[in-house]
């Protein structure tokens, strides 16, 4: 019968308390984890002070012996600590249980959406990441922003004079899922284009400010690298421009003109709406047709399973967004109550 079986059966056996650890009299665990058979006399010789406790019947006696230890924390205290409010004034906060997120909420926080490819999905990992992301949002305020918004980010920098560094620029890319969410800012410093990659939930971020909230016609603005520098130049002392409450996010329909070649990418082969039409040469047209013929898959539009596996179903999407919306609603109410208490103290 094993060690666990002796506990469950209630048969008599002897335990020896050696340096605060319960060790069976028949043997003890060595450093490597192997069970070495020794007698009680050998244990008494090796350790001068030993205390023998006999457990014969129930587990209640085991619990009583454990409670005598100075470092033992009773389960009632643990439950009381877990159920205690984290902040004063949170008892009066009421949040609806059946909360439905707004229809376009997934575009405000796209990083909470899981990966659309089912072969890379892990629902337990997604749940844990969402919990960590919501906890991180209690420390730092991550506002609503889109590609094309002008933002300012403050991060910790050990080489800066005040250990902080602030960078302002236009958001040219945003992506990633879960804790791997990221965004890229671009600005021109001393006549050179500078792009900084930020991890959205990195602990080095101190603050994220939205200077001007707006959208662009494209989801990625990397073609700004081949546009005049004036379209990527923003003053670091730029003051925030607030939108009226309840107003829709404006869309900047500006179309930029590309510089002459060479370019970083073949922009003529991409369906870009934020640049002026490019004068195509016969060589460019031939290259576009070649790429189109190589990547043409007309049969995929009839593959129903491919469509099902390449996106998250609506029911799961609504469940995830409702959970995130509920937690953010609770977080906003906690911030309002904390601000109200601070005003009363002043």
UniProtKB/TrEMBL annotation:
Keywords: Ribonucleoprotein, Ribosomal protein. GO terms for molecular function: structural constituent of ribosome. It comes from the Eukaryota. GO terms for biological process: translation. Pfam families: Ribosomal_L19. GO terms for cellular component: mitochondrial large ribosomal subunit. InterPro entries: Ribosomal_bL19, Ribosomal_bL19_sf, Translation_prot_SH3-like_sf. PANTHER family: LARGE RIBOSOMAL SUBUNIT PROTEIN BL19M, RIBOSOMAL PROTEIN L19. Belongs to the bacterial ribosomal protein bL19 family. This is Large ribosomal subunit protein bL19m.
